[in-house]
Design a protein that fits this description.
The complex is a heterodimer.
Chain A (H helix, E strand, L loop, with lengths): L13 H22 L3 H21 L3 H26 L14 H21 L13 H8 L4 H22 L11 H10 L1
Helix pairs in contact in A: 1-2, 2-3
Chain B lengths: L4 H21 L3 H24 L5 H33 L13
The chains are: A mainly alpha, B mainly alpha.
Chain lengths: 192, 103
């Protein structure tokens, strides 16, 4: 991205400012996904996280991957998650207690993991280029349909198997034994 | 800052940490799947950052990132289908109430 000069009054480069903005939006909305109480709002913040991440991909010179991110995550996976939230939203499950009782152990594990990986990153001498290298869509296509052709086809088969498996798992079974009838299962629970 | 590999890697690690915390702490199965998506995205960010700062391998890393996106889509499909199937039986999306193996 070629923007002239620096940001007025701040003396920062423009791409630094955009990076900081996108990183802040992404981390903030990711935190809201995890800490929020309402699951629908979590899903909506998740969409914002994906969109900010697409912007960061663009900043990294991968315009093609930014477009893929918007298409697949913002377009498909977010809608899938919203539909799943709509299906499993029930009045019986109270939304008051979002975290388990051992949430502090999870927080401890996450903090230790982040500190470990951050120190590793900062202590390593990376043999990195000075500036961002732009990945052309043409080069990606040549690699994808050249060296990685078998992986590409195998991935297509995997996605087909995934879709068939998901249909099989989520479809309503009328031939199942009676204990799998949800209403009957609830009655039995309340009796027991 | 936006031209250094470390900044992107630190950002990716922070996002991964948020995902780990969400996966370990949340009770709702769908919220746990959302946290898994956060972790997958952070790994993808690390892959793309490595590719962007390695000129001769940029196309390879982008291809791998595309594979990760497609696999994440498949994972989300199957995971949500499993959550819906369990919800049919147990009538709750909260994982700590799936205790039928303990009974």
């Amino acid at each position: 991205m070629e923007l002239p000069g620096t940001v007025p009054y701040l003396d920062w480069r423009w791409d630094d400012l955009i990076f900081l903005l996108l990183a802040g939006v992404m981390l903030g909305s990711a935190l809201l996904v995890v800490l929020g109480r309402d699951i629908i709002r979590s899903a909506l913040w998740l969409i914002l996280t994906f969109a900010a991440l697409a912007g960061i991909y663009g900043l990294l010179g991968s315009a093609f991957l930014a477009i893929s991110q918007v298409l697949v995550y913002v377009g498909a996976i977010a809608v899938l998650i919203l539909f799943a939230v709509m299906i499993t939203q029930s009045k019986r499950g109270p939304a008051k207690l979002v975290f388990q009782r051992q949430w502090w152990a999870g927080a401890l594990a996450a903090i230790v993991l982040v500190l470990l990986m951050a120190t590793t990153i900062l202590l390593t001498e990376w043999d990195a280029a000075e500036s961002v290298q732009v990945a052309e869509a043409r080069d990606i296509a040549l690699t994808l349909f050249g060296d990685y052709l078998f992986a590409f086809v195998a991935l297509g088969v995997l996605l087909l198997a995934g879709v068939i498996g998901a249909l099989y798992l989520a479809k309503r079974d009328d031939d199942m034994p009676q204990t799998n009838d949800p209403l009957r299962a609830i009655d039995e629970e309340e009796v027991a | 800052m936006s031209q250094s590999l470390e900044a992107y890697l630190i950002l990716s690690v922070l996002l991964f940490g948020i995902g780990v915390f969400g996966f370990l702490a949340k009770r709702n199965a769908i919220a746990m799947l959302m946290s898994i998506e956060l972790m997958l995205n952070s790994v993808n960010l690390a892959i793309i950052a490595f590719g962007a700062f390695t000129p001769e391998l940029a196309a390879q890393f982008s291809t791998i990132a595309l594979f990760v996106i497609a696999l994440a889509a498949g994972e989300a499909t199957v995971g949500l289908a499993i959550v819906i199937a369990i919800y049919r039986n147990r009538r709750t999306p909260l994982v700590d109430e799936y205790a039928s193996m303990k009974e």
